[in-house]
Structures are given as C-alpha cells and as structure tokens.
C-alpha cells in the first residue's frame, strides 16, 4: 500500500548534516562538522544544586499542566536583555528551532515568499521548504547583506519575513556592521517586512563590541529568537521569542495547538541561574575556553594552508567559513578528508540553491586544542591530495 | 501597520477551554472543566530519587544534543506495550499533542480530508483547523462510531486519516466495543485509511477488561499515540507514537525540522520507572484514588438529578458526558453554574460544527471527594434555576 504523505514531505530529504553527525559520533573521526557546544563545560554542579532546591521548595504544581508561554520568572529575566520590553512580549519555546517553526506556522500560507541570507542555517532552510515557502536568497558578505539586492527582493516579492542571523552567522561566522543594520532597518520599514532575527551565538563574543540588535533598532517589526542551548545546555530545550504583543499572542495560540506547553522544570533552573548571576559567570567561562580554540584553529589554518585558502576570523560564535579556493567543489574535499579522519560540512548545503561551492564550515567549540591541531593537519593533507 | 498572518491563524480562535481554565485557576470556583490529573498524586519521591541518580551516574552527554526520536531505553519499554513491535517503530514527542501536530505536518496538504468523531478532543479539532483540513465528523455513541456513516465518508472523501479515541474517549468517556473496532478495521483496510489512534487514558481503567487496540488489530495502517501526562506528570512532556517503519521515519524527519529533539532528562527518569515497575505500581495508586472520585460524581449526579439528566458511567478515564436534557443549550447552564461557583465545559465546543447541544463534559480527577459533592450540588441548583 502506498503511504500518502503531504507534498512537503516528499520534497524533503534527510539532513546531510545529520548524516555526518551520525557518522562521526560512532568513530574516531575528528569532527569539525557539528554545531555542538563542548559538553565538558556544562555547568553541572549549578544545575544539580538548583534541581535539588526545586524539589525542596516547589509544591506538586511544578509537574502539573501550565500555560503555553512559559515560566514568568524566566520571561522577566530574558526581557531585561531588550530595551523597554515587558515580559508579556516574551514567550518560551522548545529550543529556538521551535520558534522558527511557530513563526512559519503563524505567518506562511503556501507559496508565500520569504528571504534568507545566502548561505544560511541549514535546518531553517529545511523547515522553510516544509512550509512550501518561496525562498529567495540575498548574498551575504563579512560586512552584512547586499542591501541593493535586498531592496529589489523586498519590492518585487513582498516577503512575509527576512530570516537574518546578524551576529556570528551560521555558517559563516560573519556579523553585520551597524551601517548595514541601519540600511536593513530602513528597507524593512519602507516595505513593511518583518525581520526574523535569530541570535543563538551572540553571548559567545571573543573580540569586538556588541552592536545593536534589530529587536532594539526596529522592535515593531522584529521577531527575535534566542536560546540557552549554546550558553547553558542543549538538553534544556529552552529558546525564546521576543516580538510585539499582537504577534506574541498569535504565536502563543500556535504553540498551544502545537504541543500545549514546554516542561517548566529546566525553565525554573534557568531563571535561578540568571537571577543569581551564575549564567553570566558561566558565559565568561565558556568564552575563556572557546577563544583559545578559535585562535588555535585560525593559527593552524594560517600556518598550514597559507594563501591557498581564505577566511574571515570570526569575532565570536562557533564557526569558521573557509574558502578552499583551489578546490572548486568542497564536497570532493569532504570525501577525501573523511578518509583521512576529519569531517567538516561542505558549503553547498547552506545555499538555498545547493550550488557547487569551494567553501566549507568548520566548528571549533566541540574539539580539544589537540584535536584542532591534528584535525587541521589531516584536512591539509586531504587538500594537498586533490 | 497590518500584520499579515497566515490564513490558518485568522480562522483560529482562542480555545474556550483555556479561557475557562484561566478563569477557574484564579478563583474559588470548583472546576469540573479541565482535564487535569490530581497534582497531589504525582510520584514526587520516585522522580526525585531517579533525578539524583541521573546526576550521579550519567556523564555530561546527558545535557548535550542527541537524536530526534528519543531515549532508546524508554522506546524499548514502550514497545513492549504492543505486539511484536521493535523500538524502531516508536518515537517520543513533546506530549502527545505534538504527535498530532507531526502527523498533520507529515500527511496533510491544504484541504485534505480527515475524519473525526463527533464529538472529539477540542485541541485536536483546533489543530486540524490550523492545517486547513477538510473535517468530516462521524457520530459517536457509547458503543463506538456509526460505521455506516464511516463507510460513506471513507468512500466519498478518501480521507488521509480517521482520528479516533477508542478508549474512555474525550469528551464522552465512551469506549468502542470489540465488534465496533473490528468493523472499523475492516473499513480502514477496504478504503486504505490510516487510523490515528489516540489513547491518553487507557491505563486509567476502573472497571471492565481492556480490549485490543487498533495498533495491534491493524498495525500496518495505525499510528498510535500515547502519553505519560495522565499516569506520571504533564510537565514531563513525554508522549509517543507507534507506527510502521516508513511512517516513523517520515515523522522523525518532521520532528527534526520542527524542534530538533526533546529533553532526554525526564525520558531517562520515565524509563527507570518503567524498568523498575514503579510506574505500574503508581498507576494502581492512581486508579485507587480516581475510582472513588468517579463513583462519587456518578452517585451525586444520580441522587440529585435523577431522571432529569442522562449519562453513561465511564469504565475509566477522566470524564463524564452528561445530557442536561431539560436545557437545550448547555452554554446557558454554564453561565448560571459559574455564578453558583462551579465550572464544566459546555458540549458545543467538542463538535466539529460547534452545534448547540444539551451535553456537557465533567471532569472528576482533579477535584476532592468533598469538592465533587459540593460542586454537583451547585450544578443542580443552577440546573433548577433555568
């Protein structure tokens, strides 16, 4: 018997990154492929302490059904990250990936147009395809997006939103300049386009100074997504959205029909860690461990590859976007690299049109300094073999 | 500026039940409205014990990203509930509501037809509307669905699935007879229609003997949904799906793009409680507390209302579906009852066409024996006042 799936499913294919992750999880391969935080750094003692405290202080309502938008104490703490924002403009999600899903569900009819950066976050591209969206891509450079192209797309396609990762972008590590942001804001206002601002990495800054978020520059047209997966722990499954009241109300309705609510248990722990300043301290620790990892990868790439590759040193986040310019198709480099014992993500998958590219994404947060050194050497051997 | 939501959102309205829940949460009103378990009965000591154990025995990967389908040990335990089922045919969800959402996402194109029982679970009806499904309803009685009507609907509309709650249905408390099940199975086979079998209450049986599930009678065409929200705790947010391999694979892909994965922490605790038999013991405790509550409500209704109402005594679950036959529109009874200090859910909201009805849904699990007695008295006063 033929199973009659929806059209959206028959056009979806299994995530290539998932395949790489499965491959590297089971082997001795050094993996620069994933986007995982370093598990050794999870603040286990703090989590355990607050978990025990919760069992002592909270009554059984801790485990009962509750509301769809999340624990008030945590929403209050998150609201402080933004200018003049009441907690009613915050809602919590099952990781920020669910935020993306709820925005699609709440805004997209079939064939509606949305704009993405080229390249962009892989799992967002996959999700947008699931909603049968018309996806248009705007070129991204190390300074931000090409605003000339963006204006044409805003004007010609009246998109429902522009999906933007303006700080330490995935996969590139690039950040928009303040000038670029202001120009994007001007265009969003002119054409009445929502900015869907995804900032999972913004707390992981190793150099430079934080610039203003779209959520503060243009609050009335921005839906901001954030997450504790990179600063606390992915298994907490806590992301958030910040948006104007009318939009948060609609998103909350979508959340109710999607999965009623999230677990409150880790939301309480997260709130305690913010109230006490423990999360802020922990973020400093993460930066102290991740900065040398980034430096180690940057230095190893410079020393071994010299002028044969190009990349921009990221000021934060988890990724380096390398142009392996002597290898027009990085998928071929990937095949050789895997045999040498090192993995990365070939750039093709991050482009809306899956074009052949010489670029590749390298993650440095989930490898030790030694693995970074060895892995880059293996990658260099693979590059020379081509 | 006009916010351009998707069509699905503009047709959705805020759940009436949520409104009642918000109303009753803040007041002295006795509520028979919700579908909540009794929070006093949550197995808190077990949960705390296993949580402490997890912190001792598991390494930091406990809090790292993992796979979309859930903790293997728990899937193995759940698979044992079904005949000849490997754990690969099980996947875990963020409560069974997310299972419903993922099935819709994976199967429904715009306007696709689905069949529901009339009346049916409110939040499922809301979700199906969000997917712009064409919803057809089949009459439900205390013996099961009207299979003559079901056959016509299967034949004329080629539905993607039939959403069925065959045991202790919500809102009615009715269960299909085995004969009715066999007839539904025959029709599903004849017309190649998937049975989406939702069984959140099946473990809460106070009388009678369990009959076979569609998942075992017709495994090749059944997607079964289950949950720990009624037996363990809603905040765990653990539901599951059991389906043929091809379907589980497609659902897992949908889960990945929807929210990547769930928290594994409570999945581990749930697995431990099943392996040790603690959950099975706890379910007996629940039954020992819930059966007298059901009896108290049944007796109070009989004693006070006599022949002026009609209902079928449910063999399990959480609800009694009462025909307030002297009040053609139970919404009017609701308005008076609220003023008297007792809430229930008027039946209208559970029907696909929201028809005016004399029925209402009463929950007995989340009230004390005393509240049940007092609440039914207040309800009787309201009924007499009309």
Automatic annotation (TrEMBL), chains A, B:
Residues 47-379 form the Aminotransferase class I/classII large domain. This is Aspartate aminotransferase family protein. It comes from Sulfurospirillum multivorans (Dehalospirillum multivorans). It comes from the Bacteria. Its EC number is 2.6.1.39. One of its GO terms (molecular function) is 2-aminoadipate transaminase activity. The lineage of its organism: Bacteria, Pseudomonadati, Campylobacterota, Epsilonproteobacteria, Campylobacterales. Keywords: Aminotransferase, Pyridoxal phosphate, Transferase. Its cofactor is pyridoxal 5'-phosphate. It is an enzyme of class 2 (transferase).
